[in-house]
Amino acid sequence: MLQTLDVALGLSFIFFLFSVLVSTTSEMILSWTNARGKMLWKALAHLMPNAGHGKAAEPLKDFVQHPLMLSMHRHTTADDGVAKHFPSYLSSSQFSQVLMDVIETKGTEAMAETRWEQVRSGIAQLPAETRGSLLALSRDAERNLLPGQDPISVFQFLAGQWFDEMMNRSTGWYKRLTQAWNFCLGIGLAIACNLNVIAITRALSTNDELRAAFVQKAEASVKAQSELAAKMGFEQSKGARAVFDEAVTELSDAGFPVGWNKTTAKAWATHPFSTFFESLLGWLMAGAAAALGAQFWFDLMKKIINMRGTGAKPDSSQNVPQGEAGMAAGPIPPAGLIIDGTESRQ
Q1: Segment 288-320, tens digit of pLDDT
Q2: Which of 93, 179, 233, 298 shows the greatest Cβ crowding within 10 Å of its Cβ?
Q3: Within its chain, how far is the Cα of 47 from the centroid?
Q4: What does each C-alpha distance from 73 to 65, 93, 273 come to in angstroms?
Q5: How many CB atoms lie within 10 A of CB 269?
């Protein structure tokens, strides 16, 4: 049982280091391509489509070209690559503010007696794809109106909730996109490093000294890192890369076909077909491990260490203080409490 946990701990440690490298590379690529901004563009296109359907849908043009939105774009004109340079974040309050200004501007031409009628008139002038959703929100605002409440305030609140729900969906879209990138990059880096998970598992299962060394490294890593250590930045990933290269070198020096060296070349020359299929399966497993993320493997390492009985000791500050006689000491008595027949003075 202990050997199985040690093997799992060693694998988790390697997967943690590998996932840090993959996730850092993936985040750099997604940031360079402004994937978050494109995801926000897609979310607004679902909320308030101006024209088109599916992937060809575009968000409401008046909303995108609003001055408050244009100030967040990194382009000169409204049509100069808006989707490529779209802001990566938009709060619900900003969304409601821009939306209300767009609607009220469109409703200024109508001879409305109240501001709410002006808002309803502005909604009626929007494209049909967007008009239906906002009309439903306006009717919902009127139904939920309490005595003394302003329908515009209720409408803004509901519009903010509507936007937040779409942002929750877009977060799921971005997470799946990140996992796909991590999986593909993980396979590519696994091939480049020849990170064969099957060979690594065999090495940790059969070599006691190697297994003990990786267990020690995993325990030291968990002890040194905090809860946020798995979310390493670029500078911290350099340290993970050095430790990862060292781990691969140790496996290779132990005689296992990991990395591209003489040992690997001999294995491929002796058994080309079996080595290819085994390596292919091992590379795919490494890509799947990278898709789970570094935080997953860091948490798994801590759980395995606790199962082995070598986890962190409980905080001494949480222990009940003991008195001289070994009994639990109570809290400090309040001023004025009579102790041993005498009254304490303040």
Answers
A1: 999 998 889 989 998 998 888 744 444 444 444
A2: 298
A3: 23
A4: 10, 18, 53
A5: 9
3-class DSSP state of 322: strand
Residue 177 has pLDDT above 90, yes or no: yes
Residue 321 has pLDDT above 60, yes or no: no
Q: Alpha-carbon distance 200 to 288, whole Å?
A: 15
Residue from 286, 295, 228, 299 nearest 14 by CA: 286
The string of DSSP letters for 222-264 reads: HHH--TTTTS--HHHHHHHHHHHHHHHHHHHHTT-S-SSSHHH
Copy the structure tokens of residue 142: 């009127």
Amino acid at 340: D
DSSP 261-290: SHHHHHHHHHSHHHHHHHHHHHHHHHHHHH
- CA-to-CA distance for 40 and 255, rounded, in angstroms? 50
